[in-house]
Amino acid sequence: MPLNEVDQIDNMAEEGHMSDFDNNVYEMENGGGDQNIDDYDLAGDTPSAQARAGKDIQGVPWERLNITRESYRRTRLEQYRNYRDNPLSGDTVDEECTQKSKGGNYYEFFHNTRSVKPTIPHFQLRNLVWATSKHDVYVTSKSSIMHWSSLSQNLNEILNFSGNVAPTEKHAGSLLEGFTQTTISAIAVNDNFLVAGGFQGELVCKRLDKEGVSFCTKTTYEDDEGKAITNAIEIYNNLSGGMHFMASNNDCGVREYEMEGFQLVNDFRFPWPVNHTSMSPDRKLITVVGDHVDGLLVDSASGKTVATVKGHLDYSFASAWHPDGRIFATGNQDKTCRVWDSRNLSNAVSVLKGNMGAVRSVRFSSDGQFLVVGEPADFVHVYDTNLNYEKGQEIDFFGEISGVSLSPDDETLYIGVSDRTYASLLQFNKRHTRT
Fold this sequence. Notes:
It is a single chain. This protein has 435 residues and is mainly beta. It has 6 helices and 30 strands. The protein has one domain: 7 Propeller (Methylamine Dehydrogenase, Chain H), CATH 2.130.10. It starts with 5 loop residues before the first helix and ends in a 5-residue tail after the last strand. It comes from Artemisia annua (Sweet wormwood).
C-alpha cells in the first residue's frame, strides 16, 4: 500500500470515502431532516425464515423510506468511488472481461447476526473474517478479536488490544513486555492457532485451547508506521506436519515462523511492500503480491522468484491457491480477480470483474469447486470452477466488507459487514440441491 496514504486512512473504513449507507439513503430522500434512520425500531437478527417471508436480510426498513432498494442500488453503483493507486487502471479492464452468467445458486442465506459488529482498521486490508468450522468464526471488532458460535449464538472476546497484551509463555525472541494499544491490521485463524498483526509490525500468537498469549514479536522497528504495518497473515501445515505462519509486511518483507517454538524460519525481501502471500498446497511456491502491477511466484525454500505474473493494472491485495496446486487467483485494485495456471502464465485463465471496486478477498473452497471473490463493499461473488468461472452467484447487500471466509468443510460462507448501523455477520449455507 502507498506509504503516504496511511496517515490519512487509519480511521477510515470506507473504500470510496463514502459515509455509512444507511444515513446516505435517508438523507438523499428526505432532505437531511431531523429524523434519522437510526431512530427506527430496527429489528435484530434476520433468520432465513423471515428472509423467505420477504424481510430484508439486513433488516433495512425499505418500506419506511422514500426510496426503493433497487433505486438505491443504482445510486451506489454510480457514486461509489473505487480507490486506485493507478488512476487509469480501470479504463481498459472492460475490454478484457466477458460477461459472466449470474444464475448460480450455490449458497443460500441462512442468518444475519447483528450482535457481531466487524470493523475495518485499514480500508485496503479486508481479510478479517476466519471460519474454523461451519459454526465457529472469528472477526475483528474495534480493538478486539471476537469469536461467534452460530450453534450456541454466543459471542465471546478472545483478545482485547486496547490495553497491554503480553505473552504468558517464554520463547526465544518473544517480547515479554508485549504491546500496548495495538491497532489490528490482519488476523488468521487455523486449527488451534490465532495470529494477529498490527500497524507497527506487531505479531501476537495465541493457542485457542489455552489462556493467555503464547508469543509476541515485532517484524520491524521502522519508525514510520506506514512501513511497519502487517498486511496479511496465513497459517498452514508444513510438509513435516508442523504448523507455520507467514506474515506479509509493508517493509517489503515476508517472514515465515514455525509455531511450536514460534521461531523465525525464513525472512524474504522484495522490491516493494508486500500486501498478501499464499502458500501453494505442495508448499513449494508462494504467491507474492503487493505495491506493483506484477505478481510473483517465489520458491518457498530460497525466496527466489521463479516466475512473474503479468496482467493486472494496479496493486494487488489478495491471493489464493486452488487445492489442485496448479491454479491460483489474485485480487487487484483494477476491479478484477484474475485466475492463473502456474504452468502457463502468459495469459490469465479467466478475468473476473467486480461491480463496485477492488477485489480485496479471494478464497477457493477446500474441494476446489468454488472461488469466492469479495469486493470492498456490497458484493460477494461465488464462481463455479467446474464451469471455467463462466457462471457465478452474486450475493448483493449493502456495507463495507471486512472479510469473507468459507468453513473448512465448505458448508458455510461468512461475510463480515462493517457499518455504523448495519454492522453484522452474514451467514450463507451451502445448497446441496441446486437449481
